[in-house]
Each structure stands twice: as C-alpha cells, then as structure tokens.
Amino acid sequence: MSQMTMQKLKKGKTIWLMGLSGAGKSTIAQCLIEKLRATQQICFGLDGDQLRAGLNRNLGFSEQDRSENLRRAAELCKLLNHDGITVVAAFITPLEKDRALLKSIIGAEDFFEIHIATPLEVCEQRDVKGLYQKARLGLIENFTGITASYEVPQSPFLTINTVGLDVDQCAIQILNKIFI
Ligand code: ADP
C-alpha cells in the first residue's frame, strides 16, 4: 500500500452537526457515536455545551466569543483527525463565516457539514432545556433563533429535518451518505 493511501486510511473525519438549540444535534451525535463504535471505529464526541462547561468556560455568546469557541473546537478536531480519530461535533454554528473557518482549519476533505434543520417552531415546542422560554422572557441575551441570527447553511454536505424521523433514521442517513 502506498504511503498516501495509508495516510488516508489512518486519518479520522469530522462529522459536524449544526442547527438550532433543541434541533437534535446532541441526541443524534450520541447515536452516531454508538453506531461508529459498533464498527470498531475510534471516535470522540465533542459537544458545545460540554466544551463551554470546562475548556472554553471563559467564553460567552457574543459573535466574537462564539467564533473563538468554534475555532478552538475545530483545532481540536484537526488534532484528533490527524491521529486517526473520527470526531462527531455538535455545535449550533450559526454563521456562514464560522463554518468557512471550520472547513479551512479541519480541511475540506475531512469536514462533513451536516445541517440538522429542525424548524424553529419545533425546537421551541420541544424546549428541552427550557431555554426558549427564558429567551422569550428576555432572560437570555443573544439566543440563536430568537435574538441572535441563524444563517441557513448554503452548502451543507447533508441537510436533515428531524420532523417525522426517529433518531436512528437520522443517524443512518448521515452514515450512509458519508461512508457508502
Ligand atoms: P441540541 O443538541 O440540538 O440542542 P438535543 O439533542 O439536546 O438538541 O435535543 C433534541 C430533542 O429532540 C431531544 O429531546 C430528542 O429526544 C428530541 N427528538 C425528537 N425527534 C428527534 C430526532 N429525529 N432526532 C433527534 N432528536 C429528536
């Protein structure tokens, strides 16, 4: 096997799930990780909420801080991918300029931009963490979809609307499109 082919086989991918809060990113990410591990792939879950709770706890939700949060996450993905580890990342990632930055850091051939395109009304109805209610009451600033913008991704690798699908079906669609 050539050096080049071996290098390609050894490299991991970054499967980056983006979408509104409550869209289903973390739930689908968890399901993807279970399915990948069942095929002996080494993979790592990187979740925006978890990253903000520790490593990136000095960052808020201004446009600048969100961008920095994503940049650091992308640098981590790059390191892990180079070491053969596939990363499943779940971040709102609201702006096109930041998506372009992620792609440039991780590398276009390893970066899979998946838009979890659950409509705002559905996310708000689910309100898993009670955040939409707080945002509507004005208790949270810069809340994506309410008081901060979410730009619809213009060139995602795949778009999934979770309405009418179960988590498993969403994960299978993603894996089929990437690996088959
Ligand atoms: P996010 O990480 O995008 O903020 P979560 O994964 O925390 O969203 O929450 C999504 C909620 O939507 C969960 O309660 C999940 O059970 C529910 N849900 C319903 N249908 C789906 C689906 N097809 N895919 C993912 N989540 C779904």
From TrEMBL:
Gene: cysC
Keywords for the protein's UniProt record, in alphabetical order: ATP-binding, Kinase, Nucleotide-binding, Transferase
Root EC class: transferase
E.C. no: 2.7.1.25
Pathway named in the protein's UniProt entry: Sulfur metabolism; hydrogen sulfide biosynthesis; sulfite from sulfate: step 2/3
The UniProt record lists the keyword Nucleotide-binding: yes
MF (Gene Ontology): adenylylsulfate kinase activity; ATP binding; sulfate adenylyltransferase (ATP) activity
Organism encoding this protein: Acinetobacter wuhouensis
Record carries keyword Ion transport: no
Catalytic activity: adenosine 5'-phosphosulfate + ATP = 3'-phosphoadenylyl sulfate + ADP + H(+)
Domain of life the protein comes from: Bacteria
APS kinase domain span: 11-160
GO cellular component: cytoplasm
InterPro entries recorded: APS, APS_kinase_dom, P-loop_NTPase, Sulf_AdTrans/APS_kinase
Gene Ontology BP, a term: sulfate assimilation, phosphoadenylyl sulfate reduction by phosphoadenylyl-sulfate reductase (thioredoxin)
Similarity remark: Belongs to the APS kinase family.
Top-level taxonomy: Bacteria, Pseudomonadati, Pseudomonadota, Gammaproteobacteria, Moraxellales
Name of protein: Adenylyl-sulfate kinase
Role, per record: Catalyzes the synthesis of activated sulfate.
